[in-house]
Amino acid sequence: MGMIEKQRIAELQKLLGEAGIDYYIVPTADYHSSEYVNDYFKMREFLSGFTGSAGTLVVSGKEAGLWTDGRYFVQAESELEGSGIVLYRMAEENVPTIKEYLEKHVTEGQTVGFDGRVVDAFFGKELEDAFAGKNVTITYDRDIASQLWQDRPAMPASRVWIVSEESCGMSVTDKLAKVREELEEEGAAHLLLSKLDDIMWLYNIRANDVECNPVALSYTFVSREKAVLFPQSEALTEEAKAYLEKNGVLCEDYHHIAEYLRGCDIEGKVWCSSADINYMLYKLVQNRAELVDRKNPTELMKAVKNPVELEHIRECYLRDSVALTKFLFWMKENAGKIPMDELSVAAKLDGMRAEIPGFLDLSFPTISAYKSNAAMAHYSATEEHFSVIEADGFYLVDSGGQYEGGTTDVTRTIALGAITDEMKLHFTKVACAMLRLADAKFLYGCTGRNLDIVAREPLWECGLDYKHGTGHGIGYILNVHEGPHSLRWQYKPEMPETKLEEGMLVSDEPGMYVQDSHGIRTENIVEIVKEDKNEYGQFMGFRHLTYVPIDLDAIDTQYMEPSDIRKLNAYHENVYAKLAPYFQGSELEMLKKATRAVGKD
Fold it and tell me: Does any domain span residue 100?
């Protein structure tokens, strides 16, 4: 184990020595900072043997180190064995960050290198600041490691398809006009976009170049008079070409973006977000023009769904809720009676979603976690490591789908048999947390940080907490995680806060995790709506999009306030009203029981 990777590291060290590079950084990333990475871009995995979805390799002439987070410590320790690569456990005491490691080890006159296409400009700028005045060279124009990957998979180039205006509710022409208004207001003449979901939204197109994210590898450069899209030529159908031409969009080849930016006319400021563009392109433009480094204007536009999108989304979530509810009923009925494990039941749920009209793909790989596995918030069962499911304890499933009418995300935890009083306490408090936030009323101008405490309060009252955000934005036939808004309690300067706007979608997903015992998460997606307006201002609220029962077998009303009981009963009354038309016979009886009122004598 690890001998192949040890040899690859040695070969890379030789290449680095020949190139005069003292430290070389290999992140887990494509050219667009996508959440999921296609096999073509898995250079870090090829070199290190570590298969986790997050991690960064740093190689010097003397050693190699891999940084990853707590989700992957056990996996990384196993997969790195024999490779000679040192594991750096991120966020652990006395473990340096990559930046701190380099600041300590890189000496005067040395060179730090990386492929500038897979390192975002924000991190690149951090390195610039770290080495300022230290006579350290940063080189970013060579993919040194690619020389070692002889059988590298092909770059994905799926066919581009068009989202009709009847589905997305806004034309490309109108979207470009809104972008140009933002450029004018900002005093910029151009916008350079590398963020794939922003580009897809702007041009009403989709593809399948990134797992679970219906996007096409591309860039775009928008000026006040011209819009240029850079897709892979082989990805464009004749229909797509005609569509883009009709909307006044010029097309250049994806691989010519750098050449184009070096040679095109650039007068005035260029708007690009260092958090969302790779370092190579950022430096290229910085050498030619003054930059406006701000979040992409398209991100907020995309986050606020229009009435047409919302109409499709509500119907989409209802169909998705029906499928998940039927799956959970099946689990409750069959656990312990038929053979099942984390992988087999996930495959069953995925198959049920695939039968929903308009299904395109999963929105992320299904998290199917039994008992203590669910204590790892982002656990992933594999063919080598999975648990058999029995009629005992908690089962957690976090899943979602991509449909022609929207993108879904939902988590439920159910009791399959005996659970302890502590588990009931945790489950009940998590349910109260989700419902309290969904029922919150707030003045316009609030951000997610203002509201996060509403969800955490039931847990904080018991001295409990969960170590992840409470909510994230959701795309429309796009990425299941999108910004710029989120629900988090901590202040982080690198994460600018965004006002919550009518038409935004956000997840409401508190949880509770006890190592080696159990994990609980209850997640609904909610739509932000306007409530009443008076002399105090415009009040806002949330409307449920997810209608799936909360497992009453795990609820203990002694841990609930009367208002929490009312919220739970009101939610279940709505669940029954929404879902009943899709159920019949024994399943309808199960739905009635699952949504019955509790806490009443």
Answer: yes
